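As described in the Methods, two query proteins were run sequentially through the folding procedure within a single session, without resetting any intermediate state between them. The first query and its resulting structure tokens are shown here.
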Amino acid sequence: MCRGSLNLLREKGIAYLISRGNEFHLTEPMEKLKSIFGIERISLQGGGLVNGTFANEKLIDKLSLVVIHFVDSSSSVPTTFETGSFFKHPISPLEFKLKEMQKIEPEGLWLFYQRK
């Protein structure tokens, strides 16, 4: 990240963490969030690659999905969990158990899972 970007973040009062090295790992920044700010949990609102990165490091313990009656099967539609060329290994499967399910009117479902 260039110094100008860091200055802009400071100017706006936006907190940030920097991870150094050739490979990006989320475990260290998550540990810093806990030790520096006391943050124990975050709500991950990412796209497929962000979700895939957290899943790859087994940093997801709960999963909340909303399912609606709309299907788009084009190849350009992102999935919930994706990998990119920067992943050295495919994401190993994470097992979840369905904890709660609610109907969302008119035709949706809210599914809440907890990691086994």
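Immediately afterward, the second query was submitted; its sequence and tokens are:
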Amino acid sequence: MKPTGDALEALIAGLSGRPVVTADWQAVIALANHTLLTPVLFATLSHTGQLDRLPEDVGQYLQFIYRCNRERNLRLRSN
């Protein structure tokens, strides 16, 4: 899948704590997943207080991936 410029720009904006409310979130999430940036996207938007600007299902998905990633990292560190 080749990312569109809009999805890339929206991902960059989200990683900067400035989510594009009108973004094609399916494309943004696909790009974030492909580049392994989904957890940091959630962390950034959470830290900047911008999660409430996202569609509810998008925020829930980002949080789910973040928590799974965090749990995996904790398990890896404990070994």
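The mean pLDDT is 94. We note this only descriptively and draw no conclusion about the first query from it.
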